[in-house]
Amino acid sequence: MIFMGDTLTSISPRDSRAWAQMEALLEREGIQRDANLDYSCGIFDDDYKLVATGSCFGNTLRCFAVDRSRQGEGLLNQIVTHLMEYQAGRGRFHLFVYTKPGSAKFFRDIGFFEIARVEGVLSFLENRASGFKSYCAELAKSRREGTSAVIVMNANPFTRGHRYLVERAAAEFDWLHLFVLSEDAGPIPARVRWKLVTEGVADLPNVICHESGPYIISSATFPSYFLKDEESVIRGHAKLDLALFKSIAAALGATARCVGEEPASLVTGIYNRVMAEELPRAGIRCEIIPRLEEGGAPVSASTVRRCIQQGRLDEIRELVPETTWNYFRSSEAAPVIAAIRSCADVVHY
Fold it and tell me: Choosing a second label site near 43 at 20 to 30 A (CA), which of 10, 64, 109, 166?
């Protein structure tokens, strides 16, 4: 319960005092504030001391903490209720929670259902009893006879390197299920990435495209605040993603996941190693395909974004399929080009 004098209110990043209190409260509970937050709230006592906090990012709830002197008073319930009402106010009713496994019971008790967990690290829950099951059942409708593989890509934007990866996998398997990440992360919106991918593979008859939805975990939605270092974050991300992916692969009848090799990327290298360790245990092969090179360097979406940012649009023509090139030289691309040029850093999306 909220005592007399307690106030539940939003926390603005511009309120430096409240923001500092939130970071300190999270830190005392062993949590680092997540870089991806779009709304935060807190309960303050009559001395304006923060005693409980929670946040949102997209359709996820995250970064919960209650001061130890006030635990057991129902404050967390108040925070979660407020965040769910806030999410409903912006039209988001299908919600997800990342929390420590030890806290998962609380969320189960208030109507959330665990989808997957990384033991001792992270639990992933949603507020729909059959959400993930329904998602897999819908995917199963696109299951085909013969061999099947899966590729998951951000395609930010779709390059000749992406096309090469798809062609290689499509040539090896009867069917290729291609998932495009649905989150808007970075300067190229999800709807544009979907358009460029689907147009870029439209001539390949055995490629079936899917929007990833909320069950293929992207770096934008994955919480890093429970984990101590970068490698732990990447491994935790990979393990949670793969725990869900095993069910997705089963629904599709897929026996392989194909990924592009990227020797220069710490993230991709660790992720690929975790996949190579975890997937065979579920009877799924992890196939790492060498990257397409141009002039001795891998064809990279980062290079394409950098060229656009620096006003060297003509230089991307050799790096992208004709469909991507036609988009970026059209008037439709003007807002996206402006967004890329306004970014401080276009390499790490």
Answer: 109
Q: Are 180 and 193 in contact (CB under 8 A)?
A: yes
pLDDT in tens, 101-146: 888 999 999 999 999 988 888 889 999 999 999 999 999 999 999 9
DSSP state of 228: S
Report d(CA 316, CA 313) in Å as an integer: 6
Residue 225 has pLDDT above 70, yes or no: no
Here the tokens at position 109 are 């008790």
CA separation for the pair 182, 49 (Å, rounded): 38
Contact 299, 293 (CB under 8 A): yes
Q: At 247, is the secondary structure helix, strand, or coil?
A: helix
Span 135-296 CATH architecture? 3-Layer(aba) Sandwich (3.40)
- CA-closest candidate to residue 96, choices 240, 214, 10: 214
Which backbone phi and psi does 150 adopt, to 5 degrees? -130, 140
**Amino acid at the residue 76:** L
What's the whole-number average pLDDT of the chain?
90
Minimum mean pLDDT range among 75-89, 129-143, 182-196? 182-196
Pairing of strands 148-153, 256-260: parallel
Q: What angle do CA 108, 110, 115 make, to 5 degrees?
A: 30
The DSSP string of 51-70 is: EEEEEEETTEEEEEEE-GGG
How sure is the predictor about 21, in pLDDT bands with cuts at 50, 70 and 90?
very high
Closest listed residue to residue 115, CA positions, set 245, 221, 274: 245
